[in-house]
Write a structure and sequence with these properties.
Four copies of one chain form a homotetramer. The first copy, chain A, is an alpha/beta fold. Chain A has two domains: about 130 residues, NAD(P)-binding Rossmann-like Domain (Rossmann fold, 3-Layer(aba) Sandwich), CATH 3.40.50.720; about 220 residues, Dihydrodipicolinate Reductase, domain 2 (2-Layer Sandwich). The first copy, chain A, is about 35% helix and about 25% strand. Chain A contains eleven helices and 17 strands. Chain A has a nine-stranded mixed sheet with strand order 16-15-14-13-7-12-11-8-17. In chain A, helix 1 crosses helix 9, helix 4 packs parallel to helix 5 and helix 5 packs antiparallel against helix 10. Chains in contact: A-B, A-C, A-D, B-C, B-D, C-D.
Chain lengths: ~375, ~375, ~375, ~375
């Protein structure tokens, strides 16, 4: 049986670093049955790339992603580029028979996402989307409690995901603010996370009605030379109905002054509730109607016990994990699935499903009406 | 100058007690220029009413609201009944030339609310709606900060108001669950508060898109005799655009297991933000971009200092106020306005404005589309 | 049976107002079997006193406490003066056969406290000390949980009580900063509350070792005319052993910049723990080892349910109570005990017991050694 | 100039893993001028050691610490053993001319600690104690604010450090519960952290009075064979005076049911205050009297901005760091100091200073009196 897999990591910025770190840490802490070898680092800025490859210990580096993807020592292509390259790289990687691991959002739009899914399915290669928030121990515990019925029938879900990095009008117009590159703004970048968590915790979304907002319409170009138009959303909000009848409330923004990475979600069921916040991610709040009436309240569960998902592989109780650990867990699940011949989760179907919800929100915002996900999917 | 005003209080339950307590406390703590005299208590259950009148020290009581409203010693009619009686009592009180002070929601629907406004304006009597949340010191401070520009241009507003008293399917079908009596469910009962706060803090709402949900469709009748249909909403959610361009997100529910009276609101502006929660109502959280970058964060302001609205009339700093104090402040503002010959705030125009938003949400939920407030108002 | 009792309230400032308010509210909300009549208000500043008496509705007022205490219509003498008058008034009131209700600390020192206890016992009159914090619903619930064994054997208690009103060096030297008037500083004023709560929740304190600190040694005299020496403690801290073997950690200060009335206490037992904070007093945090390992955590109990002490007499769940409500509950317990012929709790024996602990701390601070409470009591 | 240094890591359990991880991460994220090479892993359980060495990528491993310490490829000896071996290993490593990096507490007692300090000074080798809590970004920021005068004169410091892993009476008697191995219990294990932070933030401690408590006196031996006596403290508490006149309150325990790794500290100064909690370690709370009176409150600073210590080397704002990051920062400071020819901080002098405070607490607890640190040092 194969015990090692060569990794080509495309992208060296925020997500590139998060993934590289995950491969480095998964071995000492989880000892996965399949070990990742950091074979090729790929990025556009060669000087920075050499540095990145050296620091993280990649065997080689290249500025040509095709070279990385076709490298014979590479079994797994990990895509951390800007969104406009996801489809092209993923499809080519699939054609080369590589495992494809892609950052969220899967693509700029639904059509691209579907093309990617088609490609990996036709090639018969394993595929995964890095919805890293699924891999926080508290989120895993939340799902477990819901699955076990601790909340009873789930009726209401609400979530907000607030950042403020666009409050300054002089923040430059990076690729994330250009529709052609990014597909959308906050919607594809941050709403996609909470859409995925909604699907993970509650189920499929049936229909949505939403609005998109842009508060600053021009920003300085990153490399000087004047101003550029912002043609994506700074903020998005939508209402939803899930297929199981639950209601959903979603908001995301890059304009919530003072909020840094404030993702909050709450699930209300007939017998209990839970809520969670990404700025205090080791804690899950859980309320059970089963507790005695006079001593009932949301329990502040510090999800760092040996009984908790992933936690036992790290530190003793109360010694908290950070943001990056979610990526280590994701990579561990990826490698475990590959070793066992299963497709990992969440996969490109999840990527497509989330993208369909975003597309429905976009259409809803344009046409000012409720849009079903089925309609978008062409059902 | 008149120094006293006789009060007829119609209603003896939750709101009746809150108002009676407010009249009792306003004198020792605020010494208003016009003193309230508790002249007539009015309610339907005579035995309980006698007890109520005795406990709070009303001079008289009656089960006939007409008698109360026409009583020559009464100058102020305070309406704390179920919603279906607001209009009739208020209109009659106005015709009698009494000051009218009415609990929220002003009416069951917009038409009723407008009729009430017409009546008080035609009669030329002062009028006020008891949106008590406006009178929490922290909310007053929030408005002051916004008005002074501490937040810069306001861009986003979000609020949730969560209760759970309908989670138990055996909770009886009280008047609040009957459309004919209540007008609507959570929408008119709790959403109306956050709509009013939105108007108070941010400005007029231009348009909305919303959904209403009922999770339990039948409940035991309060006096036995089987089950009754619930024809109002258990929960309501809507998106909004304000006239000034800000976005709004609103949700209210009586089905959020574990949440008791959890009203949360947040305002994001170009230069700062603030948030507040009714379960910790003495605290206002305020973030300013003006703070030094390395020492910036939401300030937890304990709004109990002499510099804070109303707080100096109570206790030393840090000795917290409760829910009921908001009513004392409301009554103080009412009596002060009357003494000075001003109409108090918020008045029936505010009641109509809030009702118009609710009506737009109802229509939006029925017709599954965005609805402007102007459309509802017939503009 | 007697159904009413005339009250003479001595003192019109912070505590005078808190007590007057309590008498006013106890009838509507608790309907005690014995009704308080506000007969005589007493204070030194006649102009303010007339105003105070008018606002709260006292029948009479006088600047001579002897007159108040001997008034034939008075059955209950309520002492809210500066500490130096507690003993003289209480003893005289006892001699007159009146019920004596005294603010904390019972006296300036242990000898005075004991003389007071002797006087009320010899006179056979009921007596109570107003340790108001015992009467917060959350504290009552805490005691109930401990008594029922929900925490198992109690092993550790820790509490801090932080204020900051002396941080400004120009804050004047009021009577609270003069040993002759106050007995001690933070020790008698605020530590006494947490000592009483320790006794209420955990049991008798056997021995202590402590330190007192004064950070600002001179302050402006209140009425001008230069500076006066501060001869009491700004802050006090001590370690303790309870008779049952539990350990205790206590700190109080008037110099904790930014802390307004921050009283925090935590109890750790062999099977559970609880903690509480006076700035969020409606919430009790409770941890039980009996919860399943993976879903264990401190429960945030919002102590406003009908099942909770006192809460059912006020508002629906989640509508929070404030600081002043603790006094209403205290007065309710006082009146109920009187009506039933019991002595109320906490009584002067509790006042003496708390004073003995303070005295032990004082002696310990002076002699720099552990001091047993027995030594202080039996010395 | 030397660019790499070989590391021998002695110990493979909790701290061994934390240090190994730190060496692995410091290169990609901080690129220190001197690179650590993981040369030798050392531990007692050979099977586990082989696994540990493989996972973290050590070149070699040995169960003989002498071999590790004398290894010619090793320049840095990192001691993560049980406390009883610290002195012997450190002294031998110093004699071999190696850099010595030692986990806290430096030793079992003051005499040992001093011997270690003497050894490294005589050998002229660099030395550091791993007080990892100093290296949380929030703690660094706290120190910066204090140093810059943002708090004014520091007057009061209080800290508690609560764990609960000994609540279960069947938890075995590991080496940490044996005086000969550990020196002391909670005192040396957890109190030493808060003593070091006190010194880091406030200054030298002049005198203490304390108490030690053991609640469970016998526990099962780890390898079966009956019960063993616990001869160390389960909990420790003490009062302190700092040399600069500030007061200190310290408590630590392994018996605080429900508290996992709850380290809380607060500093009050004449012009401001701050507090911090290790279970939410990315947040620093800071209050400034300089803020406007009506908008003053503790600021919740999320210490993840580029302006904050270390934070810029990790992730974007709001993406939180965990417990283990403090070790990465410590190792970075160690390597930077070595590269620049400075002795790192905190060093063995800090280890001795902390140990002297612990020794004073021990003596104080035995002799039931205040003990000065000078007395302990000069005795």
């Amino acid at each position: 049986m194969r015990r090692e897999i060569g990794v080509a990591l495309i992208g060296q910025r925020f997500m590139g670093r998060a993934h590289a770190n995950a491969y480095a840490k998964v071995v000492p802490f989880f000892d996965p049955p399949l070990k990742p070898l950091l074979r090729v680092a790929c990025g556009r800025d060669e000087k920075k790339l050499a540095e990145f490859a050296r620091r993280f210990g990649f065997s080689e580096y290249t500025t040509d992603w095709r070279e990385a993807v076709t490298h014979p020592g590479v079994g797994l292509v990990d895509i951390c580029t800007s969104n406009d390259l996801h489809a092209e790289i993923a499809i080519r990687a699939a054609e080369e028979g590589k495992v494809v691991f892609c950052e969220k959002p899967l693509a700029r739009d639904l059509a691209e996402a579907r093309a990617m899914l088609r490609a990996v399915e036709e090639a018969g290669v394993p595929h995964m989307v890095c919805f890293n928030y699924r891999f926080f121990p508290a989120i895993r515990l939340a799902r477990k409690l819901i699955r076990e019925g601790a909340l009873g029938e789930v009726r209401q879900f609400r979530t907000i995901y607030l950042q403020d990095w666009l409050v300054d009008p002089n923040f430059p117009r990076t690729w994330r603010l250009v529709r052609e590159k990014a597909g959308s703004g906050a919607l594809g970048d941050t709403a996609v996370h909470i859409v995925d968590l909604a699907r993970f915790l509650v189920g499929e979304i049936a229909e949505v009605v939403g609005m998109l907002s842009t508060f600053v319409h021009e920003r300085p170009l990153p490399n000087g030379g004047g101003m550029g138009r912002v043609d994506v959303d700074d903020a998005a909000a939508f209402l939803a109905r899930f297929e199981n009848g639950a209601t959903g409330l979603f908001e995301t923004t890059r304009m919530a002054t003072g909020r840094k990475n404030f993702m909050h979600l709450e699930v209300n069921g007939a017998k209990g509730s839970l809520f969670w916040n990404a700025e205090d991610p080791n804690v899950l709040w859980f309320h059970s109607e089963g507790d005695p009436a006079a001593a009932r309240g949301f329990r502040r569960i510090v999800v760092t016990e040996p009984e908790h998902p992933y936690a036992g592989s790290w530190w003793p109780p109360g010694h908290i994990l950070g943001y990056e650990h979610s990526f280590v867990h994701a990579v561990y699940e990826l490698l475990s699935a590959l070793a066992e011949g299963r497709n990992p989760e969440p996969d490109f179907r999840d990527g497509v499903a989330a993208q369909a919800v975003l597309e429905a929100v976009l259409r809803s915002a344009e046409e000012r009406r409720w849009v079903t996900v089925d309609e978008v999917l062409g059902g």
